[in-house]
Amino acid sequence: MEEKEQLFTVFEKLLNIKNQCSSDVLCECGSPDITIKQVRYLQVIDEHGEITFSRLAEITRNSKPTISEMINKFIRMEYVYKKRSPVDGRTYYICLTDKGQTICRREQIALLKLTERMAFSLDENEMSTLIGILGKVR
């Protein structure tokens, strides 16, 4: 059990560093109040392009009212906008604004910063070992 506890502690520290990188990057782009969870929702929207409320609720395992509340908040923050379906006027698609797209790209930059910190902290052999070990995780 001691090894699992050590693994937990190490990964907790790694995730804290990653979250700090994310926070730093989001502050740099003028969005310090967005949470990591909210960024993840924006990334889901980004991955799917135009996505319906129902589909986003399904993917994120949330209720439609929860998604509606979140999207309305994102609209106020100017991260997304709603677009009416040309086929079915009752259906709306959620789309990222330029600001929303920027946040998604910034999160990728945060991950690169974490990777750079790891690379700076490890020698070549340690880096190869880490890549091999993490490559086994499923």
Automatic annotation (TrEMBL):
SUPFAM superfamilies: Winged helix' DNA-binding domain (SSF46785). Residues 4-138 form the HTH marR-type domain. Keywords: DNA-binding. InterPro entries: HTH_MarR-typ (IPR000835), MarR/SlyA-like (IPR039422), WH-like_DNA-bd_sf (IPR036388), WH_DNA-bd_sf (IPR036390). GO terms for molecular function: DNA binding; DNA-binding transcription factor activity. SMART domains: HTH_MARR. GO terms for biological process: response to stress. The keyword DNA-binding applies. PANTHER family: HTH-TYPE TRANSCRIPTIONAL REPRESSOR YETL, TRANSCRIPTIONAL REGULATOR, MARR FAMILY. This is DNA-binding transcriptional regulator, MarR family. It comes from Methanolobus profundi.
